[in-house]
Please model this.
Amino acid sequence: MATVVLLGKLADLGGAPALTVPLPLAAGLDWAGLKAALPAMLAEAIEDPRVRVAVNGALVPNKHKLQAGAGDEIALLPPVSGG
Amino acid sequence: MRDIRLLDAPFFPGALIGPFSNANPGLGGVCTFVGEVRSDTGVEALELSHYAPLTLPGMHQLADAAFERFTLMGLLMVHRVGMMRPGEPIVCVSAAALHRRDALGAVDFCMDHLKSAAWFWKREKRADGWHWIEPRAQDHEDLARWQG
Model:
């Protein structure tokens, strides 16, 4: 399985700060597979072009080409606000 | 002297600024900005969350960019995460340089990036519950001044 970490308002949509996505052995997880495994409202929200994705702490240049595997941590990062 | 920190407990900016100045002997100017939780009507608390693999490394990258862009002797950048009450400090940026423009500019540069281009998520608690805060148009305009 893979862990999906939800930041900011995405955690509200997912109902938790982190979710686990079951993965069949040896099968990878792509963008469509990830969305299919998430609650519908969350899957819709992460299509916002401002939502960035990191795998194991490294930002993915193009989330639509996401490739993750068992044990990976996928972070879904909505627009930021600090200071 | 470079001091970049992410803190999950209240801090006293005054306790950081003196030692920071002293750690940069020979400086010509030091500029410090402290941001606090504003006492807006109805705001009971503010919570900042972060993502550990990105947030502190991102602050170090921002410090690298500030050192590249300005002629600095030292940079202090401290940012809170967790729950805060109105009046509590959220952020403290202090820059030491031989000349004032570099110190003033570096603090301005770091703050504009911390507001809308660093890995933090902010929400505030009002009587009707929690609300996520996104950067204002002004924050994006402030950031755009440094680009291109």
Q: What stands out?
A: Strands of chain B lie at 2-7, 29-36, 45-50, 74-80, 82-84, 89-97, 120-126, 129-133. The first strand of chain B starts at residue 2 and ends at 7. Chain B has one domain: 2-144. The helical segments of chain B are 13-22, 52-69, 100-116, 137-144.
